[in-house]
Specification:
- By secondary structure, the protein is mainly β.
- It has one domain: Roll (SH3 type barrels), CATH 2.30.30.
- It has one helix and eight strands.
- Strands 1, 2, 5, 6, 7 and 8 form a six-stranded antiparallel β-sheet that branches. Strands 3-4 form a two-stranded antiparallel sheet.
- Strand 3 and strand 4 form a beta hairpin.
- The longest helix is centred in the C-terminal third of the chain and has 4 residues.
- The protein is globular.
Length: 72
């Protein structure tokens, strides 16, 4: 199920992430598009400022409002 509750919230990568679209260095910023559960994993699709969109796990990013990150 797609959850758009946090759509529009800004986030920043905690560590270097290697994705199918390319590298996201630590500190890369983006905007949450939506969240979803897939195969018992919680994923967050982020539109990255670098120009592509890829999903990340919640523990790979920090949110603009840290209280949102702990809502799950």
């Amino acid at each position: 199920m797609i959850d758009r509750t946090h759509t529009g919230i800004r986030c920043t990568t905690r560590v270097l992430l290697r994705t199918v679209e390319g590298l996201l260095p630590r500190g890369s910023q983006g905007t949450v598009a939506y969240e979803m559960d897939n195969l018992d994993r919680h994923l967050i699709l982020v539109n990255w400022d670098s120009g592509f969109s890829v999903p990340v796990f919640p523990n790979e990013v920090d949110f603009e409002h840290e209280s949102v990150a702990h809502a799950h």
